[in-house]
Amino acid sequence: MERLTKDYKALYRKLEATLDRIDRTEDPSAMLTGIVESLIAGFREDLGFEGGRLYRRRGDDFVLVSGHGTSRDVPAGLVVPRGYPPHERTLSEGLVIMRLGESGVDGEFERRIGVRSTFAAIALGEGSTHVVAFSVDGEVREEQILYSLTAVRHAVNLRLRQQQFRSTLEEARTIQESLLPAAAPRFDGFDIVGKSRPTEIVGGDLFDYLPLGRSLLGVAIADASGHGLPAALLARDVITGLRVGMDEDLKVIRVVERLNRVIHRAALSSRFISLFYAEIDSSGTLTYCNAGHNPALLLHSRGCRLLLRGGLVLGPNPAATYAKGHARLRSGDRVVLYTDGLVEAVDRAGRRFGLSRMKRVLRERDGEDARGVVDAIFDAVDSFRDGAPQQDDMTLVVVRKL
Asked: How far is the first Cα of the chain from the last one, in angstroms, to the nearest whole number?
């Protein structure tokens, strides 16, 4: 028993190494083709695999994608007969081993596709999108084949599910990126640039520009608790709500208070989101509301002012009230909106980048255009991290009055 256990462990390690060498392509058929080829090349001695076939579902039919080994001459496009008993058993049971002469096996069909005595087949993918079959030569080590193909089936299905999940997240990222501004707004007298970098494929940070007329522009930045898809959905709802509120010509405080009630009632009400929203007119007057967000920085010749007025983060208290603040921008003044992923970035020793370092970069880049300032801050944070992993989404918006 101990020797048998060691044999299985060695076989499993060999299977793992084989699967790890397969290219992680996004095309399931291409990935499975590589697996069939590798199992035939590497497991002829262990399992007796001499030929292999990959089938893909097409409607109610299964069509041959490729043949390998003794099945390499089988023409692609061959359709498995509907109702063929071995095929139905494979779809029903997930894994079968059958022999020529066995009830339900069509010997003529099997020999035509490269089977000389025995074949094994596994169904793969959600809803059995693919079937892989192997021709087995010589002594049939049924227990080892069952063990090995069960391991292969589990590993491949896991990888296919991961690909499907990644595909879903990629779609979510596409949706999220479509909500981000495609370009900086053209607003006379101002230079404005924003940048966002999520921790995962999608993130909980967003920023937006809302044109409110020729002489008025809204600028927003939001940071949902957590990160990943739930945070991204929450941030999306806030930005969408802001756009709707502005379309209805609502004032700053009314929009923020309505958003707070909407977030509280949402399915993700256990989470919360911070928001900084400002409206800037062409003369330089700035009206803002800070809903629990990192205070924006107003940098001018006399120093730095924190824009704090507002209220609680959105979500926890539906009855929360908010106040608006005011500021005046003069030539050369800058407003910097950011999320805590930047100032709370840590290096290898666990030290934080901090607001003081950000202010230092801003002072050093005084007089530079908005793009240069945004790039300089991200570069400074990355240099400070020195290879330490990014732990939170990072977003920055710089508004400079020309």
From this structure: 80
Q: How far apart are CA 204 and CA 179, in angstroms?
A: 12
Instruction: Return the pLDDT at 10.
Output: 61
CA–CA gap between residue 66 and residue 73 (Å, rounded): 9
Burial of residue 281 (number of CB atoms within 10 Å: 0-12, 13-18, 19+) = middle
Using an 8 Å Cβ cutoff, are 262 and 291 in contact? no
Q: Residues 80, 61: contact at Cβ < 8 Å? A: yes
132: amino acid identity, one letter: V
Of 197, 194, 202, the C-alpha closest to 218 is 194
Distance CA 96, CA 15 (A): 19
60 versus 248: the higher-pLDDT residue is 60
As a whole number of angstroms, the distance between CA 377 and CA 357 comes to 9
CB within 8 Å of 47: residues ≥ 6 apart: 39, 134, 136, 141, 144, 145, 148
Query: Is the predicted pLDDT of residue 5 greater than 70, yes or no?
Result: no
| Measured CA distances, 402 to 57, 160, 257 (Å) | 61, 53, 33
Give tens-digit pLDDT for 231-290: 777 777 887 888 887 766 668 898 899 989 888 876 554 468 899 999 999 999 999 999
How many helical (H) and strand (E) elements, i.e. helices and strands, does the chain have? 11, 16
DSSP summary character for residue 350: S
How many angstroms separate the CA atoms of 196 and 205, rounded? Answer: 7
Nearest to 179 by CA among 225, 224, 226: 224
In this predicted model, which residue has the larger pLDDT, 10 or 396? 396
Separation of alpha carbons 19 and 31, rounded Å? 10
- d(C-alpha 302, C-alpha 258), whole Å: 36
The DSSP H or E segment spanning 185 is none
Q: State the DSSP string of 272-339.
A: -EEEEEEEEETTSEEEEEEEBPPPEEEEETTEEEEE--EESPBSS-TT-----EEEE--TT-EEEEE-
Say which amino acid occupies 148: S
Q: What are phi and psi of 193, to 5 degrees?
A: -140, 140
Other CB atoms within 10 A of residue 226 CB: 17
Angle, alpha carbons 382-385-386 (nearest 5°) = 90
Q: Which of 172, 179, 181 minimizes the C-alpha distance to 397?
A: 181
CA dist 299 → 123, 235, 396 (Å): 63, 27, 15
What is the DSSP code (8-state) at residue 139?
S
